[in-house]
Amino acid sequence: MNIKKYETFVKVVELGSLTRAAEALHCTQSAVSHILSDLETEFGFSLLQRSRSGARLTENGAQVLPAIRGILNYSEQLHQTVASIRGLDTGAIRIGTFTSVAVNWLPGILKEFGELHPNIDFKLYNGDYGDVNQWLTEGSIDVGFLSLPAQADCECVPLVQDRLLAVLPKDHPMANLPRFPVTQVQNEYFISLLESSDMDARSVLNAAGVRPNIRFTTKDDYAIIAMVEQGLGMSIMPELLLRQRSENVVTKELVPRASRMIGIAIPNASRSSPATRSFTDFVVEWIKRNHPGE
Q1: In whole angstroms, what is the distance from residue 185 CA to residue 194 CA?
Q2: Is the model's pLDDT at 88 over the cut of 70?
Q3: How many CB atoms lie within 10 A of CB 37?
Q4: Which of 9, 13, 287, 293 has the fewest CB atoms within 10 Å of its CB?
Q5: Nearest-angstrom CA–CA distance, 262 and 145
Q6: What is the pLDDT of residue 70?
Q7: Phi and psi for 280 in degrees, rounded to 5?
Q8: Is the pLDDT of residue 252 over 90?
Q9: DSSP assigned state of 225
Q10: Is it the case that residue 68 has pLDDT exceeding 80?
Q11: E strand or H helix that includes residue 220
Q12: Would the CA dihedral through 274, 276, 282, 285 be positive or negative?
């Protein structure tokens, strides 16, 4: 089986361009075009619509993409299994994550894991909860960090209970109170993440029957903090995200208390590669050492 043609197809889909795919694969654009044409001839239908603006999947291409990703995943699993049997420690792990984990956990995790497994490579995908769930479903990542429960069908391991806090401007009238009532949110301008990534705050507000007065919506967590700093409103955010980023705002525990459960998810544990299983086990152990009791 010629895995190279499938890798080329997936790389074009990911980058949306034959030119950028050729650069990433260290070959010419004409070589990429030739490989895709051969693949379309083999299948008997078009996989991509090409234009000056790039390349995008046809309906038929979208239908075969999950199966092709599956072939590549199984190929990587076979490669790593053979390497493991031969006593080698190689492979690649594609990790999906969101901002607070990417900033506060992953650097330490990857440093320590990399020292133990220097020949394993990493590909990091950073997005929101919706992105990570989609990547897990599509099979475009091997492991993902999520706020549980996961939307994707996968095996999940809970890691840490992370408090949700009210984030207020420093001159807010309630800045000196010990806690912030969730019901007070309806009297404030609220700064929100996009719906696909705001499930934590929304679950708290829905449970309290509060309809927030949403003034701004963004996909950038740190943009929310910056807007709160300028007195444009308040928000509800996870404690992990606020670490080392809250010096110019006031954070308060909510009443009633609220939290999210951060977990790590694998699409199919029985089919995951040795490197992925080793990484997942290491993450669980790293969390126990660095966040005991949380």
Answers
A1: 18
A2: no
A3: 12
A4: 293
A5: 7
A6: 84
A7: -60, -45
A8: yes
A9: H
A10: yes
A11: none
A12: negative
pLDDT in tens, 108-166: 999 999 999 888 899 999 998 889 998 998 888 999 999 998 877 888 999 999 999 99
**Number of C-beta neighbours around residue 265 at 10 A:** 24
Tokens representing residue 129 in the block: 């909860």
199-228 average pLDDT score: 92
Angle between helices 18-25 and 3-15 (to 10 degrees): 130
pLDDT at 87 over 60: no
End-to-end Cα spacing for the chain:
47
- In whole angstroms, what is the distance from residue 47 CA to residue 155 CA? 31
Count of residues making up the chain: 294
Instruction: Say what the pLDDT of residue 150 is.
Output: 83
Q: Are 265 and 152 in contact (CB under 8 A)?
A: yes
Bridge partners of 180? 254
- Most confident range (mean pLDDT) of 75-79, 183-187, 274-278 is 183-187
CA dist 33 → 12, 18, 36, 134, 193 (Å): 10, 7, 5, 28, 39
- Report which of 102, 9, 104 is spatially closest to residue 62, judged by C-alpha positions: 9
Residue with structure tokens 């829905």?
A: 206
Helices (H), the chain: 3-15, 18-25, 29-43, 59-85, 99-104, 106-116, 129-138, 199-207, 221-229, 239-242, 274-290
For residue 49, the tally of other CB atoms under 10 A from its CB is: 12
